[in-house]
Amino acid sequence: MRTARTDSGKANNVPAPRGRHHAPGSAVAEQGAVSRVDARAAAHHVQALTAQRAAPSIASIARAAGIPVSTLKSVLLDVAAGKDRTVRVDAATRLLAIGATTTLPSPPNLRRETEASEVVSHVRHLQSSYDRASIALIARVAEVPATTLKAVISDHAVDPRRTVRDAFARKVLAVTALPAPAKLQSSQLAHVTDVGLVRRLQGLRSLGWTMQAIAEVGGVSARTLHEFLLTGVRTPAVRDAILAAWKQLGGRPGPSQITRARATKRHWATAFAWDEATIDMPEAKPHGIRAPNHGNAWTAQLFQEEMDFLRDAGLNWTQSLRRLGLSSQQARELLAEAQMPNGDPCPVRDLTSDGPPAHALVA
After folding, report:
1. Residue 347: which of 362, 325, 333 has the closest Cα?
2. Is the CA virtual torsion 31, 34, 38, 43 positive or negative?
3. How far is 218 from 236, CA to CA, in rounded Å?
4. Which of 131, 129, 132, 110 is nearest to 121 (CA)?
5. Which of 1, 3, 94, 182 is the most buried (most CB within 10 A)?
6. Backbone dihedral region for residue 180 (phi beyond 0: left; psi -120 to 50: alpha; all else: beta)
7. Nearest one of 232, 215, 226, 236 to 137, comparing CA atoms
């Protein structure tokens, strides 16, 4: 503040002029103990830096010069508008010292991130441990938005590199128990894994059961089952639906030739290729079905064993050959190698028919 006199001779306090206004043509304006300089040179230098191909951001330049980002942006706007503007001498010096090869400071880490995989794995663990453990319930207990948690799970399925804010992750990971209506699963269902459920779905489809048919038996929508395959996150309703369809449909072929052909093309094992005791074990392998285009040589005995198994699984001659990746000519050559007596009731004559399964003929 400066002191001025009025016409009456009394002192009056008048605000001092702001530092950004100075006498036209002056290079430096003094304001107290702080020296200020015309901002045009520094502003033009910054504009030249940001016009380069690998241009640094205004924020990084401001951090390197030790001035607020908002101040630098204001200076650039004022100079571009033709207004008189000054900056501190030391700030201008630091701005002018920044060159194209100057190493600029990294932006501050305003928030820490956690890999979304930790959150997704924890949610899966809760849902595998509890019945009726919906994402909405888990989100409510964690005090996070349910829509955000669902988005994290969906995004992680598309991009496993997805991250979430630390604060969000801590809240979800802190949930170790769920209240009603969730309840701990019975010991009979505790062994059922996501891997086993996927194998059951694939096995049913390889028998010719459509996703719609499986969903109707399980009392859920086909979309719900597709979402499970997409995200890998199952709910008790999904688990119960797949187990119910597996129990009701897993012992007989389905009506859809298209579904069966698609499963064959994807090399999915049929329901009969899995043992109930090991289907939920990730390390378990399907047995009894030879993968198409297998590198090892076929023998007549191996071919007949495979065909017997496939006929018991409900596949006819044509379907079995397609699954084994053999042509009809190759199959007949293998049968000829068996050199069975004409009167011997061998499985050769049954193999080439498209009649009912072998187990039905035996019965």
Report:
1. 362
2. negative
3. 11
4. 129
5. 182
6. beta
7. 236
Q: 232, 157 in Cβ contact below 8 A?
A: yes
Instruction: Show the CA angle centred on residue 338, arms to residues 332 and 344, nearest 5°.
Output: 105
CA distance 349 to 357: 13
Q: For residue 287, report the phi and psi dihedrals to the nearest 5 degrees.
A: -130, 160
pLDDT digits (tens, 9 = 90+) for 231-245: 777 777 888 889 889
Q: What is the pTM of this model?
A: 0.40
pLDDT, tens digit, 9 for 90 and up, residues 88-99: 999 999 999 988
Residue given tokens 């170790």 in the structure block: 176
Those residues with Cβ within 8 angstroms of residue 66's Cβ, 6 or more apart along the chain or in another chain? 91, 94
> DSSP label at 9?
S
DSSP 232-260: ----HHHHHHHHHHHHHHTTS--S-HHHH
